[in-house]
Design goal:
Elements: H1 2-14, H2 17-35, H3 40-48, H4 57-82, H5 92-102, H6 106-139, H7 144-159, H8 166-180, E1 183-184, E2 191-192, H9 206-223, H10 245-267, H11 272-287, H12 299-315, H13 317-323, H14 329-340, H15 347-352, H16 354-382, H17 390-409, H18 413-430, H19 436-458, H20 470-500
Antiparallel strand pairs: 1-2
Helix pairs in contact: 1-16, 2-3, 2-4, 2-16, 3-4, 3-14, 4-5, 4-6, 4-12, 4-14, 4-16, 5-6, 5-12, 6-10, 6-12, 6-13, 6-16, 7-11, 7-19, 7-20, 8-19, 9-17, 9-18, 10-11, 10-12, 11-12
Length: 503
């Protein structure tokens, strides 16, 4: 009851006219920035941070949260329409969102993306209200061995998506891990695979890899068919941005199933929306009775990761607000902004500044509604991009990709890397090598390596440390099961068929 009373008080703060105006402005700006390749929520919040310096703390935090949700909503738009993810969390939306757009279902894909994001955000906010502190305390039990086990599980689960080509999936994963070794070793200071290029000392940004593999790789692939009968057809007629009852029935269970998964992963500092979305996609493919539909435009393959990555964005706020520990790059920027404004996030925030803490939580409900209202009509305009002829559209994608990567480090070296990863992406598509394991490995590879080495330092080199904690043991077992389960289920299915046919 106390939580509900506090929430009502929070609504009185969040629903003030000034906070509503900034919430709408933040959600709109976040949506636009989220759609631009390479920008993403953390860069979006950082770019718009100066806007908040003259605001009251609760207004500043409400605005930054709205930018964050807006960017998460907008990130999937370019994934669905152009196969160019706005950021890492939107990569999984390419797998089925882009095939849906190519199959003439772009309106449905944009609608379910907004609906799933809305439901995922709303449910995770309700969980936030009632379970914030216990969940945050559970997240604190994660040390280096548990993080390493979590990332092994995420990578194993993603590699097993492509059970028909597991070897190709593992090769893709290995390539991704190799990319993360480029740069200065954080523990020894040794230069690794920098080849004397100063810009490579800080490593290769995963956004460059994502845009190269998906954006430029897709453009290269389409050059093969441009002007021929196999080229993408120009869409001239557009339907209503909505879904049918059949599509709703297919989507609602995956949304409800994967929202808690995304929320829990979001709570873990450093895990982030990319792991949440990839795991949600993999879970749904494993659970589906028709896994062969995934990757060809299955609506549940888009709904599940969209719900999970929005839930992860809400979950990432828990450690920041309840413990003062940022759960993601975006919340780290928000934490810094709050400290500039004279607030110290943590347990005392709820006692000393309840209007800020509960005002922000209440704004999450309103912010998700605002994002849904903004995104559904906006999708009607965005879908018109499919009416642009390929000869104009693809140069625009290339220009956006180059502008996006330049905003990351302002380095020309990233241009060369973008082209190299574009070529790699082209050949991966041509020879049907799954790209998801590579992308996830690039995102988590560096953290996984550091967690592994920290664990060994804590145990004087003994691998037993990974089996001392119940959490890491469970995660490692899940990793093994995720690899074995697809083959085991196939074997059981074939055995049943043989028994039923009397062979």
């Amino acid at each position: 009851m106390e939580a509900i009373q506090n929430l009502i008080q929070g609504f009185s703060v969040a629903a003030s006219p000034l906070n509503i105006i900034w919430m709408i402005s933040g959600a709109f700006l976040g949506t636009v920035l989220g759609m631009l390749p390479g920008i993403g929520p953390s860069t979006g919040v950082a770019l718009l941070l100066p806007l908040t310096f003259a605001m009251k703390p609760e207004t500043a935090l409400i605005t930054m949260c709205a930018i964050y949700y807006g960017a998460m909503f907008g990130g999937s738009r370019s994934s669905i329409l152009l196969n160019v993810p706005g950021d890492g969390a939107a990569v999984a939306s390419c797998f089925d969102g882009y095939p849906m757009a190519r199959n003439g279902q772009a309106e449905t894909a944009l609608a379910i993306s907004a609906i799933a994001s809305f439901i995922g955000g709303l449910i995770s906010t309700i969980i936030f209200v009632f379970l914030a502190l216990p969940v945050a305390r559970f997240a604190l039990k994660f040390g280096p061995p548990e993080y390493f086990a979590l990332m092994v599980f995420a990578l194993a689960a993603t590699a097993s998506i492509s059970k028909e080509a597991l070897l190709k999936g593992l090769l893709s994963l290995l390539l991704g891990l190799m990319i993360t070794t480029v740069g200065i070793d954080l523990q020894s200071g040794v230069h690794r695979f920098t080849f004397g290029v100063m810009e490579l000392q800080t490593g290769i940004d995963f956004v460059v890899v994502i845009i190269g593999i998906y954006g430029i790789g897709e453009v290269f692939k389409n050059f093969e068919t441009i002007g021929s009968a196999g080229a993408r057809a120009i869409q001239s007629k557009f339907k209503r941005i909505w879904i049918t009852m059949e599509q709703w029935k297919r989507s609602i269970v995956p949304i409800l199933r994967q929202t808690p998964v995304g929320f829990l992963i979001g709570v873990l500092p450093g895990a982030g929306g990319t792991i949440a979305a990839m795991m949600a996609y993999n879970n749904e493919k494993q659970l589906s009775k028709e896994p062969e539909r995934f990757g060809k435009g299955a609506i549940e393959g888009l709904a599940a990761p969209e719900a999970a990555n929005n839930a992860a964005s809400v979950g990432a706020l828990i450690p920041m607000m309840t413990l003062g520990v940022p759960g993601s790059g975006t919340t780290a920027i928000m934490l810094g902004a709050l400290m500039i404004l004279g607030l110290q996030p943590g347990p005392l925030l709820f006692q000393q500044h309840p209007e800020v803490a509960w005002g922000v939580i209440a704004s999450m409900f309103l912010g998700n509604i605002v994002c849904a209202i903004i995104n559904l009509p906006l999708a009607g305009l965005l879908v018109r991009v499919l009416s642009v002829p390929p000869r104009i559209l693809y140069p625009l994608i290339v220009a956006l990709a180059f502008m996006g990567v330049y905003t990351i480090n302002f380095s020309v070296v990233d241009f060369y890397l973008l082209v190299i990863f574009g070529i790699i992406g082209y050949f991966m598509k041509k020879y049907k090598v799954p790209t998801a394991p590579l992308i996830l490995a690039v995102v988590v590879g560096s953290s996984m390596e550091q967690s592994f080495r920290q664990s060994l330092m804590l145990s004087d080199g003994s691998l037993k440390i990974f089996f001392r904690s119940g959490i890491s043991v469970v995660l490692l077992i899940l990793a093994a099961v995720s690899i074995i389960y697809p083959f085991l289920s196939d074997w059981i299915k074939k055995k049943r068929q043989r028994i039923s046919s009397g062979i």
